[in-house]
Design a protein that fits this description.
alpha/beta, Rossmann fold, 7-stranded parallel β-sheet, 5-stranded parallel β-sheet, binds nicotinamide-adenine-dinucleotide, binds (2R)-2,3-dihydroxypropanoic acid
Length: 319
């Protein structure tokens, strides 16, 4: 008899075909709009789970006594309770690598858009306000030749550093769990302790995973250390930042501006003060979201899942 897999996120047709050839598949294109109680019922007989964002908690796992593997269609896996998964012998996988360049493009684009106030200026033109000479009120700040501090010099951090160094002649500072010879040699990056990076950077870009160690890593104290002309970019996870402190820092002009792809609560609440601030550029957690890359992520996640259910070691097993 075929093992049963639940896919709880929309995936490309060929990925679904691949899964259908090997497994019995229950497919929920969008769990938010489909019955969650039906999903929980199906979980009782599932061997594999494929999707993203869903909190894989003790409560959810209690509904899944036969589960062997959970495969995330994302590189971040802060939605997994790894202790619970380990204690039940359930494998967990993610999709690193395939999304690196796409995410770095988005985050660097966000940095440029924030520095040069592109969304604000787009609105200025489209709303018919462009009548004469452009005055200083519309000016942005330079990106080229400035200092970029990257916190979390992993795969995506490195790809951002590459763009900044070769494309924009920026000076790169970085803070990471360990020093990285490659970025130091290839992009002339300089390792710094966190406080020093915050003090010296014109742009601070956060790219660490969300872990107990990085929870609210950037808060009031850290914003105070930053230059009042600095721009903060968060492309990692919202919970890595104390959002209240960020709002205060922006309202009080402790920092100049922020570009955000991620938030403490997602989707962001409509009454979140961040949405009212002119010096904030917001994206809807879209870093890796191009069609090509999302397809690659879904394919890789399906391959990880299939390997685990076929008794092989999945390529991207989370240890
Ligand atoms: N906005 C998006 O759509 C999007 C897309 C992809 C990834 N992400 C986020 O970006 C994160 C990074 O992705 P990646 O592929 O570069 O991962 P990665 O594992 O290659 O890199 C993470 C880096 O963070 C460093 N790090 C971890 N804890 C740290 C700490 N306490 N202090 C300093 N450095 C620390 C690690 O040493 C590592 O170099 C993901 O975990 C995910 O949360 C967001
Ligand atoms: O971690 C990731 O891969 C992105 O945030 C998409 O969820």
């Amino acid at each position: 008899m075929k093992q049963k897999v639940i896919v709880y996120r929309k995936v490309p047709k060929d990925v679904l075909t691949l899964l259908n050839e090997k497994f019995e598949v229950k497919y929920y294109k969008n769990l938010e709009t489909e019955s969650y109680s039906d999903f929980l019922q199906e979980l009782h007989t599932a061997h594999g789970l494929l999707g993203s964002s869903l909190k894989i908690s003790k409560e959810l796992l209690d509904h899944a006594p036969n589960l062997k593997i959970v495969s995330n269609i994302s590189v971040g896996y802060d939605n997994f309770d790894l202790e619970q998964l380990n204690s039940r012998g359930i494998l967990a996988t993610n999709t690193p690598g395939v999304l690196v360049d796409t995410t770095a493009d988005t985050i660097f684009g966000l940095l440029l858009a924030t520095a040069r106030r592109m969304p604000e200026l787009d609105l200025y033109v489209k709303s018919g306000k462009w009548n004469g000479t452009k005055d200083e009120d519309l000016f942005g700040v330079d990106v080229h030749h400035k200092v970029l501090g990257i916190i979390g010099m992993g795969s995506i951090g490195k790809a951002i550093a590459k763009r900044a160094h070769f494309g924009f002649d920026m000076q790169i500072l970085y803070h990471n769990r360990s020093q990285n010879n490659q970025v130091e040699n290839e992009y002339n990056a300089e390792y710094c302790e966190l406080d020093e990076l915050l003090k010296r950077s014109d742009y601070v870009c956060l790219m660490t995973p969300h872990t107990p160690e990085t929870d609210k890593l950037i808060g009031e104290r850290e914003f105070r250390l930053m230059k009042d002309s600095s721009i903060f970019i968060n492309g990692s996870r919202g919970k890595n930042v104390d959002e209240e402190a960020l709002i205060k820092a922006l309202q009080n002009q402790r920092i100049l501006a922020a570009g955000l792809d991620v938030y403490e609560t997602e989707p962001i609440n409509k009454d979140n003060p961040l949405l009212k601030l002119p010096n904030v550029v917001t994206l809807p957690h879209i870093g890796s979201a191009t069609k090509e890359t999302r397809d690659k992520m879904a394919r890789l996640a399906a391959e990880n899942l299939a390997a685990g259910l076929e008794g092989k070691v999945p390529l991207n097993l989370i240890k």
